[in-house]
Structures are given as C-alpha cells and as structure tokens.
Amino acid sequence: MSNIDVSVETGDKPAPPPKHPNTCPVCHSHYRDDELEAALWVCAHCGHHFPMRARARIASLADGDSFVEEAAELHSEDPLGFFDLRPYTERLAEAELSTGLADAIVIGQATIESRGCELAIMDFSFMGGSMGSVVGEKFSRACDSAAERGVPLISITSSGGARMQEGILALMQLPKTVCSVEDLKDAGQPFISVMAHPTTGGVLASFATMGDVLLAEPNALMSFAGPRVVQQITRETLPEDFGRSEQNLRFGNIDAIVPRPELRGTLSRLLRLFDAPV
Amino acid sequence: MSNIDVSVETGDKPAPPPKHPNTCPVCHSHYRDDELEAALWVCAHCGHHFPMRARARIASLADGDSFVEEAAELHSEDPLGFFDLRPYTERLAEAELSTGLADAIVIGQATIESRGCELAIMDFSFMGGSMGSVVGEKFSRACDSAAERGVPLISITSSGGARMQEGILALMQLPKTVCSVEDLKDAGQPFISVMAHPTTGGVLASFATMGDVLLAEPNALMSFAGPRVVQQITRETLPEDFGRSEQNLRFGNIDAIVPRPELRGTLSRLLRLFDAPV
Amino acid sequence: MPLLGGAKLSGDLQRFEKQLERMQEDATDEEIWTSVQLARHENRPYTLDYVERMLDDWFELHGDRGNADDGAMIAGLGRLDGRTVALVGQQKGRDIKERAERRFGMPNPEGYRKAIRVMELAERHRFPLVSLVDTPGAYPGVAAEQHGQGGTIAESQAVMARLTIPTVAVVIGEGGSGGAVAIALADRVLMQEHAMYAVISPEGCATILWRDAGEAKKAAAAFKPDAVHCLELGVIDGIVPEPPGGAHEDHDAAARLLQEAIVDHLDNLEDLPGDELRRRRRAKFRSLGVFA
Amino acid sequence: MPLLGGAKLSGDLQRFEKQLERMQEDATDEEIWTSVQLARHENRPYTLDYVERMLDDWFELHGDRGNADDGAMIAGLGRLDGRTVALVGQQKGRDIKERAERRFGMPNPEGYRKAIRVMELAERHRFPLVSLVDTPGAYPGVAAEQHGQGGTIAESQAVMARLTIPTVAVVIGEGGSGGAVAIALADRVLMQEHAMYAVISPEGCATILWRDAGEAKKAAAAFKPDAVHCLELGVIDGIVPEPPGGAHEDHDAAARLLQEAIVDHLDNLEDLPGDELRRRRRAKFRSLGVFA
Ligand SMILES: [Zn+2]
Ligand SMILES: [Zn+2]
C-alpha cells in the first residue's frame, strides 16, 4: 500500500468542496468571483487559501504582460494504452476541456518587479496536478530555459503525485526532473520552490524539495505519503497539522511560510538577493 | 557551565580505579599483569575493556617491528604561564615522568598485515589524554605523513577533551586538526578513526568523528559534554548507556563497535578495502 | 536512448539474445501477475543474501550520523571480482521479528541518509556503486514525514545525479515507487527477470481506480510493472536472468547470474571518464517520457 | 602567521594603531574580568540586533532539512554594502521566554546543520559568509548528544575548511569553546573589544581546577579569554572597537563599527581566488599552537 506514496490519492485532494466553490470551507464566508479574484483567492475573513489556477498565479506574480509561455504545445500520450474505469485518453481530453490547459503545468519566461526569471507553475485542476511525461518534460525545459538565459527558476507546485495512468514512465519523471535541476545548479542558476496545497508524492520527492529556498503557502499539505495511507499503516491518530506547512517549518523542512498576498514581494526580494538580471 | 564541553572533566574519567588497577571494576575479577597484557587488557570474565596504553596498542596492531615513531621530540610549552593549584609546567613534568611519554599522543609509520598505514594513538594516562598544542601538531603531522606516503591514517582516541591549561590555543587545536584531515582527504587518503573510552569534548568535536569509517571500543563514552554537565543542565536522569558506544551505534553516530581482540583483523580488512599499499 | 543500446551490447551474447526473444512476444497478463508474485516471494533472495554470495571482505557501515541506523537500508563496502565497491540496498526481513525491525524493507529518511553518506564516501574514494532495489516503498510513517521523507528521497536521487563514479542499480524484487527510484538513478538500471518496478503497488492502484484492492491483477495488467515492459519502455537497460522457476529456487545460481551482470556493466562503465558518465547518466534520465 | 599580518593591514589606520597601543600595555586581570562581564552584558547587542542594522533585504532561512529549526542558530541571506552575503550566528534571547526558546544561544546539532546547509548554499552561489559568534557553548542535552553534537561541530568546521568563498567570523559576545569555533573557521576571525573567546567558561574552569565556581575571576585571569590576549596569541586577526563603555551603550554605533570592520576584510579577501583563500585559511589554522 505504501507505494501509493507517489500516486494521485483522492484522500490527498482538498476536502470535498462545499456546495459552492466560492464558499470558504473553513469559516463558510461566501464571496463573489470578483471578490475572490481581487483577494487572490484568500478568504478575507479567516485567511484560508482557496485553490488558485496556474494562469491566475502567473497574472498575480509576473510584471504586466511580461510572461512568454513556452512548450505550450506539448500533450500527453498514452504509452500503456491505460484503461481503468475509463480510458486515460478520455480523462486527458476531459481535463483539457475543463481547464483549458494542455497538461498540469505552465512554463515560461517572465519578469517580477523587472527582474528576469523562469516560471514553472502547476495547476491542480488538471488531473489533480499529477506528474506524467508532459509535466516532467516541461519542467525540464524550464530548467534549461533558465540556465540558457541566466535567470532564476521559480516553481509553484500543487500535485497529488505521479500520474498512475502513465505507469513506470510517470515514476521516471522523478529522476528526470532531479537531473534537470542538477543541470540548472551546475549552470549556477538559483531555484526557488514554492509549495502550495497539496504538494505530495512524486513531486515532493523530486524537484519541489530541491530549491535553494523552499517556501510554502499557509496550511499546505506537504507529505510524501497521504494521511490516509500513513494512518492505515501506522494505526496512529495523526497530529492535526500532519504534513502541513506549519509542521514542516517546525521540523526544519522548509525555509518560510508565505501568505499568497506577500508572495510577489518575497520573490522579488529573493530575485534581488540572487542578483537576477534586470 | 556548558563550556566545560571541551575540557578535561574529572567526571568524564573512568570510574575511580578500585584498590588494584588489575581488578575489573565491573565483575571484580583480578588478573596478573601478564594475564591482562596477554588478553589486551580485556576482562576474560565480563569483557570489560581496561584502559590501554598507547605503546601497548601499537604493539598489538602493528606488524613486528614495523612501527617507526615520528615527532617524538615535540614537547608542550606554557604559553599562558598557567597556574592553578600548581603550575602547568609541573603537571607536564610529572605526566612525562609517570608515563614515559612526551605528551598524550604517539604517531608514526607502520604496517598491519603488511599493508602500510600511519598511526596516531592517544594515551589517556598523560593528563587525561587532553589535547593541547603538541597533540594537535602531532596529529596534524600524522595527516601529512599519511598523505605524502599515500597510506591510510588510523587514529585511536582516548581523551577528556581540550587541555584547559593552554587556554584558547587548546581550543584552536580543533580547527587545526580539522584542517589537517581535510588536507588528507583532498590528497585522497582514507582516515579510519577508532574511539576508545573516553573520547569526549574537543577531540570528539574535531578529528575523531571525521573518519571515513568510525569504529568504537565497547562501552566507550563518546559525548561532547560530560554526563555530569548534561545532568546539571537538563536535570534529567540520563539513560544508563548515555553517550556509550551502544547508544551511539543505535543513533547512527558510528559504523561499528569492535572489541579490542578483533581490532587488528578489522583494520586489516579495511586497509584491503581501501587498497592500502602492500 | 543511447544507454539502452549500450546496455544491449553489454552482458554476454546469450543473455542478450534471450532478452530480444522475450521482447518479441509481449508478456501476457498472466506472466505479468506471475512476476508480481515471484518478485514478492517469501523465499526470494534479499540484499544481504546477495552480499554474502557476491562480495569479499564485506564491511557493513551503519548510521546516518545524527539520528538513527535504519535496518531497512543496508550500506557497506566489499570487494566484487577484486575491485572495492560500495553497496546500498533495501533489506526485507526473513522472520517476523526481523521483518518488523527492518520495516519490511521500507526505509525511513534516516535509511536514505545512510545510503547518501556511503555514496559520498564511494565518490571520495572512486569506488563504483552497486545499488540493490527491493522495497514496497518508502515507509509512510508520521516521523518519516516529519523527518522529510520526500525531500530525502529527492536528495538521494540528486546525489546519484552528481556522482562521477560508475553506478549500477538492479531491481532484485519489488521496485516500489519513489522509495525504489531514490537509489536507482544509476548509469545502468537492470531488473531481474521476475522483479517488478512500478509507480504504485497493484493493490494501491486497484484501490484508487477500481475502489477494490482485489482488482490488483487487473491493475498490474494495466500498468505493466514487469521487466519486459520496463525494458521496452527504455526505463531499464537490461534484464538479469534468474534460475529456472525464479531466484527463490536457487539463491546461489541467482547470485552468480546477478554478479555476472553487474560485473559486465561495471567493466563497460569503468572505461569512461567520470564527467562523461555523469553527463550520459543525466541525459538518459532526462530522455525518459512519451509525449506529442 | 601570514593572515595576522594581513589582518593588521586591513581596517582603517586609526583602528590599527589603536590595536597596537593596546597590545603594548598588557591587559590586567581587572580588564580581563571586565571583558568577561561586558561580553555577557544583558543589553549587549545580539546577532539579530546587528542583522537588522547591517543588512538590507534580510531573508532568514529556517531548518536543518530533516529534524528541526533551532532558534539558537540564525541563518539567512542579506545585502551588506551592496553585496549579497550569507550570515550565520548564534542568537541569545532577550526576555525569559525567548531565552528559553533559543536555549540562551546554545545550539543543538540541528542548529549547526542549519548553518552548514546555508554555508553550502553560499558556496554554490559565491556569496561571502559572515559568521557572528555569541554562545556560552553548544547545548549539553541528552538529545543533543544522541543526535551527534560532537560530530556535527566537527562537520561544521570541516565545511568551513572546504569553502572557496570569503569568510569572516566575529566573536560579538561569548565565544564559548567548541560551540563557538564550530562556526569560526574563517579567513578572518575578529573579536569585538569586549568579547571573550575561550576553551571553557571561567566558572567551569574554576569548578574543575579550584573546585569552586566562585574562583571564576581567578580562572579568567589564568586563561586570558580577552580580545587583546587572543590577538597576541595569533588566534584572531583583529579587534573591532566598541563605542565608549561597550556595545550595550549604543547598538547603532556598535553596528556601524562592526559593519565597517567586516566590509574592510571582505574587500581584501574578495581579491583572492577561492582555492588560494582556502589554502591560506587552512595554513593559518594549521599554524596555531605553541610547542618546543
Ligand atoms: Zn474563511
Ligand atoms: Zn570483568
């Protein structure tokens, strides 16, 4: 069962959404779309961080129209002819239709407060942000783009882990992205990793934890195995902040917890410290 | 008080010797000198390891007359004109007289089962095996001799820590020996560290823990701070194997516990593995 | 995939041809399930069974230097065919007591840190690294998560990506997900004939997709964790034959075949300079994946 | 001691002359004891007091990646006089609560591992390292010993011996033994005028030698932990002046003087290639000691 560790586990997904996605699952405050968008999808009342789409994150971080997307055309294939209750190809088509994305990550060039960087932003809405060949390849290309252009790489992860439907090739995206980060580091470029809820399994066990600086959004789940699996195996009742940002900070696994409204300013400061080109 | 960490602390010395030094403090078996010597100062009845003198250790490890001592002429000076209840110079003279050693370490070239190595062997009988300028310099020269001759370095430590009477210069033997080991490692030569009772304070916090392989004699105390200090500060009752070899093995701080009679064979195997020149 | 070709060229011709034959006829669902069962067979040789048969002067190294000595991970030095190698590998237990002590071969972060420490020792002294993979996965415990299981598995892969020594990893039983790949980022990755290597256990997959662990066989057929499929997908560089009936039938014969394969690959790798080894190693893993 | 000379040449002439004068008249037992008391003064500036006055864009980094975030050790990045530097240093607490949380500036192994991690980050990105030393010593706890306090202090020194970036360490208060030198194996080691740097606390020494902690003053006079004697013995490369009465009288002025000294030394060091820095650093420490 423990192999579930790098798989998309439904239990790892955010608590079942309440009737309306604009209702805060914590304090039940309700917001209009424009209110949530203006607040970067953070509950004004209790600070709960709602899921945030990749393109919205990019819009909130990158200067004006500085973002230039890369490798947008890459699409997953179905190497195993994988079929569970439905064919993998069908799940892919549906995800693309519902998210408007080709897969669970968007990469490209940008500036933040006029300093150059490369962005690699995951989107949980696309099959639970699971990492298959396309996510691995696009992250890998983001590393190369940052190295070639001499700019830092910034990633924001939100993922249930490796994409089961691509079998062993999904697992191979772990060493693939690890090698890509090592090439980036050999090129002398910094890597700043921001972990959003949830960053689990194979993404946590590969590039997401390899940043020179590790940041996390408040109350984000960052665990290799899902809470349910841990509970099943250990038969313990888990600490109530099990695997959350606060616990990870306490145990020395991350550098800082950064609320979403402060993220752009924090990244901008780090780009200055790492002397990213203006 | 915690600064006592690298000082000779009386409480760190072996339990007050029973009436006769040949009586086992654990099971009270009594031995003739020749019996103890033949048994490498290990109690045949309970396995207790008696303190063992540096020259006896060398005789038990090195091939026949292969040992060639180095830097035997180095003697401590008294840079601070240190005077407590008695002058440091007087303590030094007394120690030299009672041990026949110039200071608390003996270094030199040797072969073990015909493979070349450099030995750096400490002697607790000389001022509690405390590390002052001479111990630091001789260990440092042992590193250079091993590097120049392309042979592994083997050290056996037994020390209460830095030698208070040399003040800050004693503390400086920590970074000094650390730099010497780093030079040895850059020269590509292995370092095997054997820790005997007690290896504490400044010796534990410098070269003794820097071996490629860390071995310990059974039930040896290896703690940075002395048990009494820890008890005073933490007010806890200490685990009964506090700081002992067995606890250190359990907590991952050493590679293996090697009873004295097996040490020569173990070192010989490691010299083969590290391909020491025949 | 340059190294897949490279791998095919290594090993003796007989085994090479045998692999090609197997690749012709695609493994059936039955054969896949058989591999899953044999990979987990209770009499299958474990890491230490191979160590004692393949290595001279074995010296086990213990501890992560700072927290624990994890029995689920073995690390040490030994002489293989005359050369000193560093070996790491998960270790399952034989009897009930040992199984509990070794957590059924599921390492904690402390186990991976021990492996990392010994990899770095090997790099310092130019010892080739042999990695034997046999785990259901990394241990999913509360303390394991608190101590950074995910980050440590990434770090272990990163260290392997930095090494300039020859490295050979062999999946000798269960290659369970991240806990397995943590020590399998090697110049050559091999699988024994009846080993399995997968992103998730068949039971885990079935539970998630079919809501029924009983569908494990169907799940295995769907994601194909057997050696033949892994070779076809370019994920591994070669298949190590087992004695008739499987490795559990004859530990000595299995060890001879395993040793022969490892030595073959090390012989090939030792001709290459370290930075070239590392460049090719990274290029191989960066090439893995299928997309349009 | 080449670097002692090197140090004398750095810093502005005024401070240099001041140091020489002080070296003429040997510090009396009274002066030594005054330094001990000022080094521990409860209003003396601590690491974070200097950080907020000296560094722009300060970003604190937390955690040892695997066990804890030790509040007794600070680590982070900031801009000093325009250049990005990595800073590490022990941190004492001001009020009772903070003192307990930070263990009076006595780090656990986890604290030193955090410092090591940030030193390696600095090396990767060529950031100079600034180390502020202020600790009674490493924490003498049961868990600290179990987690390898001794080995971690050695490893921290070893990492500093490997760095190829410019490194400056300043003892800003108590330089307590191994717990202090763990982060003081630097190209330049400075002491503030009223700091102390010693192998053992006066109380500890007195307890052992005179069987009476009350003899601390006598002990201090015997082992001379004051800056002037450390400079005379070649243990440090320079003395950083404090405002009249001591650093506690004027934190801002103390910070200005400290910043000036650190920047002076970094300016000198940055002209040297990394491997030469490392060679000289090791040669300096290997030269320390007095024997016949
Ligand atoms: Zn709310
Ligand atoms: Zn006895």
How many alpha or pi helices of chain A? Answer: 10
Q: How much helical structure, as a percent, in the residues of chain C?
A: 40-55%
Number of strands of chain C: 8
- Strand count of chain A: 7
Tell me the structural class of chain C.
alpha/beta
Total number of helical segments of chain C?
A: 14
Q: Over all CA atoms, what is the radius of gyration of chain A?
A: 18 Å
Terminal CA distance of chain A:
49 Å
3D shape of chain A: globular
Q: In angstroms, what separates the terminal alpha carbons of chain C? A: 17 Å
Bound molecules: zinc ion
Keywords summarizing the entry:
heterotetramer; A: 278 residues; alpha/beta; seven-stranded mixed β-sheet; disordered N terminus; C: 292 residues; eight-stranded mixed β-sheet; 8 strands; 48% helix; binds zinc ion
Task: Explain the overall architecture.
The complex is a heterotetramer, with 2 copies of chain A (278 residues) and 2 copies of chain C (292 residues). Helix content of chain A is 34%, strand content 15%. Chain A has helices at residues 33-38, 54-61, 88-99, 133-149, 167-171, 173-186, 201-204, 227-234, 245-250, 260-273; strands at residues 68-70, 105-112, 115-122, 153-159, 191-199, 213-216, 256-257. Chain A has a 7-stranded mixed beta sheet with strand order 1-2-3-4-5-6-7, sandwiched between helices. The relative contact order of chain A is 0.16. Chain C has 292 residues and is α/β, with parallel strands linked by helices. Helices cover 48% and strands 17% of the residues of chain C. Chain C has 14 helices and 8 strands. In chain C, strands 1, 2, 3, 4, 5, 6, 7 and 8 form an 8-stranded mixed beta sheet that branches. Chain C is globular. At the B-D interface, helix 4, helix 5, helix 6, helix 7 and helix 8 of B face helix 7, helix 8, helix 9, helix 10 and helix 11 of D. Residues 24, 26-27, 29, 43, 45-46, 48 of chain B line the site of one zinc ion (ZN).
